[in-house]
Amino acid sequence: MAAPAAKPRVPTRERILDEVERLIAVKGVYGFTLKDIADPLRVKVPAIYKHYKSRDDVLVEVSRRFIALLAQQFRPEPGLGPLAALRASLDAFVVLKMAHPAYVRLSLIDFATPGGGMEYVKLAAGGSFHDNFRTGPLAPMHQRLRRLLRAGAADGTIRPVDPSDFYGIVKSTLLVRLAFPDDEFLVRPPTAAEVQGVQRWLWDVAVGYLAPRRVARGKRRGARSRSKR
Asked: What pTM was computed for the model?
């Protein structure tokens, strides 16, 4: 019987980032030191400086990981109708956030920072929140979302909405859902049932916001009367 293949060795540079993500999830963005990173990896702090210039440099690289994964969102499978494609995209968005709790904490601090985001994420994304709707690595993701929403509005399954408003609603409500009233989803791996529960919850939020608005019968009759005058 052939011996099992050895697992590929993870480069130290990547192991450092993995450990930083774990520490952010359990201690927060500002709650750990370089020694906290080094000890579980069984290296000395100077070894980290061989790969990163500073603690800030490490956080910029973690933010680049975050932005790279975020940039792939709203890319549903081909052949789905607009509504099904949007739901699949939001489901994947939930999986991303729950699989990477460090990114939830980074996003929350990013929201709380004046000037369109904290420097780590702005450097990784190439600009502020507003900039990224049209330029930088996140622009293609926002363009895909705009296409999804336009397609849904065109076939009447959803009402026309501003894509940046919609993204702000689903992103901010999901972040709050994962951090309030407690942050248990950020400090332990969620079960499949818990992920599905959050997916259903976010879809309910999205559907409520996107539902076509029905004009009351009395208002429609009044509009017709005025148009005849």
From this structure: 0.85
| Residue 120 DSSP class | H
pLDDT value at 181 more than 70? yes
Q: Are 71 and 138 in contact (CB under 8 A)?
A: yes
Minimum mean pLDDT among 95-104, 124-133, 177-186: which range? 124-133
- Cα angle for residues 212, 195, 122 (degrees, 5° grid): 80
Domain boundaries, the chain: 64-210
Q: Which CATH code fits 64-210? A: 1.10.357
Residue 99 CA, distance from chain mean position:
11
Name the burial class of residue 88, with classes exposed (0-12), middle (13-18) and buried (19+) by CB atoms within 10 angstroms of its CB.
Answer: middle
Cβ neighbours of 129 (radius 10 Å): 18
**Distance (Å, whole) CA 73 – CA 136:** 15
